[in-house]
NADH dehydrogenase subunit E
Amino acid sequence: MNEIIICVGSSCHLKGSEKIIEIFKKEIEKNQLQEIKISGSFCQGNCTAGVNIEIDGQKIAAVTEENARGIFKKYLLDDQNE
Ligand code: FES
């Protein structure tokens, strides 16, 4: 089971964390992945570098609508082929 935690604290929220959640949900659906849990967190203490997320405990900063798909692929799709 993989886990994605997306910061929905006010700073990350303003930088578009809701959009990023939507993008990840769509990617999970599109790739028919059942084993990914997605949830929100309060401020992760790194607001200036938001949007902040964690994938399986690994912190990733500066997630945007533009790079979210690439990050998803790198951490969650490529991962499964190993
Ligand atoms: S609001 Fe996301 S790190 Fe602070």
